[in-house]
Amino acid sequence: MSREFWIVVVVITVSVLAIAIFGAAAIGYMFVAWLVIIALTWVLTQVLGVTLWVQEQRRPKQPQVVAPQAAAAPPFARQAIPEQVRHEVWRRDQGHCVDCGSRERLEYDHIIPVAQGGSNTARNIELRCERCNRSKGARV
Asked: pTM of the entire structure?
């Protein structure tokens, strides 16, 4: 049960006992009765609060299970190469791989990788076939 539940139980119990004891007394004693109720409630909640805290500290901790994450997402979303830049690079490189001259499976390759501060400008992009692009890797 929660700490708040036990505090409510204590307050109600002390109130009922105090009214039973002082109920038959004169009205003047009711004020004293309420002061006693407040004082007893405070003392009991402090004691009860401490005992609940000690019990929580003794309770064995449940191990935290962390679900594995699939793949770490990049810290930023990569921007697509603008269409105008792609057309300019295609015209400049005449639709051929800059290394082997192939016209098959062409890819736009960043000379300076975006991860190293390269931009999506025609000066930083060239056409390479898939094979040449993979063999280049992250080399500048």
From this structure: 0.45
What are the DSSP calls for the chain, one per residue? --HHHHHHHHHHHHHHHHHHHHTTS-HHHHHHHHHHHHHHHHHHHHHHHHHHHHHHHHSPPPPPP-PPPSSPPPSSPPPPPPHHHHHHHHHHTTTS-TTT---SSEEEEESS-GGGT--SSGGGEEEEEHHHHHHHTT--
Under 8 Å CB-to-CB from 104, ≥6 apart: which residues?
Answer: 129
d(CA 11, CA 44): 9
pLDDT of 40: 73
> What integer pLDDT is reported at residue 51 of this predicted model?
61
